[in-house]
Amino acid sequence: MTILVTLLLGFSIHSETLKSARPDAVSALWIGDSRGMTKVAPGTGALLLRVDTAGEVGAIAVDEWNARVWARGHHALYAFDFAGAQLLRIPFPYRHHHERDGCGPPGPVGTEDARLAVDPADGAVWHAAGEWLFRFDVQGELKVSLKLHHPIRGIALDRSKSHLWVATDRAVTAYDQEGHAVGGIELRRRSEVRDIAFDPVSGGLWIALDHFLKRYDDNGALLFEKRFHRIRRIGADGRGGLWIARERTVARLDRDGKTLFEVDPFQGREGGGPNDLAPDVLDGSAWVVNGKFLAHVSATGAVSSVFDPDAAHRTRLHAVVLYRDAAPPAVGITSPAEGTRINTSSPEIAVTYSDAGTGVDPGSLFFRVNGSDCAGVCSATDTGALCALPAVLREGENTVIATVKDYEGNVSRPAQVSFTIDTVPPGITLSAPPQGLVTNQAGQAIAGSVSEPATLTSNGLPLTLGEGLSFSGTITLGEGTNTVELMAVDRAGNNARLILNLTLDTVAPGIPDLGLIAVSDPVDGQVTVTGAAGSVEGGAEVVVTNSVTGETKIVTANADGSFTVSIGARAGETLSIAVRDKAGNSGPAANLAVPAAGSPAADKLPEGSFGYFYRDLVPRDATIAEYNPRRFGLVTGIVNDAATCRSPGSSCRFFRTRNTARRRRMPRGASLCRPRAGARSPSSTTRPVCSRRSDRSTCRGTISRWPRRCG
Predict the structure, then answer these.
(1) Ranges for the Bacterial Ig domain (predicted)?
(2) Which of 136, 301, 307, 413 has the most CB atoms around it within 10 Å of its CB?
């Protein structure tokens, strides 16, 4: 078979073909004739293409969802795409795929009274001819073949249920997709059925007989009958009414059977009376063909045009079908998803769309945001678009509605999505442990709450939220500084972090360095304990306890390890000094005796010291006024004279002071004291306290007190 496609050069093509994504899918009239088919633009009458099947085409059906045209030829059933390319050819006789040649049902041999109907649910086509009823799937495989007892006079498809009504002279029966009878209407004998039509508005059925027109409701009950003669074809107008093609005229009835008008569309032109008609459900009009001409009759009965659709080929016209891209495109919003929470106030809206007809016009994509119209800025493809909305969405719930049109102007059903904008991160409140904790316990309880439902982790490990959005758990610390990161991520993806710095210290502090700690002479029963820098661990607690009275004073050492604390004590009592660090570790205690009152300050001077202020060297029982700072001096050193030390073989430290204003010499090793009345002068045999070293005979360190006070 040869397919001839002829374009009408120099003719004005319908404007919709110029802007359609699929120019071949624009609205068109498909006309079957004695040599094949022609495709005509309904808006202009322009011949769009011709398909030559080398034989007459007596019945046509359009599958708008799969963009194909089924044609009943003289020797086969054909399927073409909208551009005229042949997709299938099913020759007669029809057979199931499992039947051998010669074993299947015989096929029809002529086109007279052939009928076709396409089921949009699956793209299958019903073919009725003679007493046979066939159903083919979209691949052309025979699924149903039924031989009825009487010739088939008409078929009508209930698209909502995928039921095919089949009329014979005895009955009208409904068949499902499997070919099973699921309903029917009994007719009187010798009813001579001419045609039937299904009304999608009411769900009822029109039945045209030789002399009567009957209407039944969706339950098969007769609503009315009206006398009409010589009916050839009928078709529902899509508005509850009916178009009727009679022997010479066409008429239109309303839903109650009232005749609105009746006209002669061809007005005596050659070709005879109407052979077929195709109602236009969009505007209520109808297209009618006779053997030669195609006529358009408006919804009010005006005959707007009568022309020969293919005058060059001198064919005889048999059937006409109007393909109108009346199906709206489909659109959906894929992102954001319904009910989700997002953390941006300017989200991108992702949509998908499709259209079985002329195609989706991406420029028609339109949005309505929270009740206000909004045109998005979109990056579009053939199947969808990613759009940015010019308006910033509000915090909280938002609703976006999208619609799109196809090139025929059909508007999609709106796609709607509601989602929540949440740009505020969750709050984390910690009740334990405190920030900066220093502890000697490795296991620590962690507890707190978050401000909103969220996913919570501690150093990547999940924490479960309980009642009131609270949480609790246990963490294990390692020796030294530990960093614990709490992270909360809410349903919108906002995250918040809380960093904890915790220190595990299980090492006890060392013993206090008594060489850097001094105790003052008791004054009114109080002494001052002073530690120089490095005497204890910096920042630790210094615990000073009077071993006699049990009194305890606690003070925090400075960062350099120095401290000062006052405590009740008397001469000769022992003070216990211990250190407790921030983690609670306690070190060993050191004992220090409280000195007797009256010891000169000079006995604390290190060896070889010169140039101290004289005020620091004046004994406590002397009057500062008696000393002249210009004539006051101090000499320190070491003598290696065994006679002056308590222990033979030891060397001892000494110092000597001289106040030239008093003009008297002080005995070696004596304290520079002012004698009280009646008191003895210091003895020249007074000796300093010595310390013995086993490795060498040298007294080192500081002499803390004298053996006796000045008399």
Answers:
(1) 526-595
(2) 136
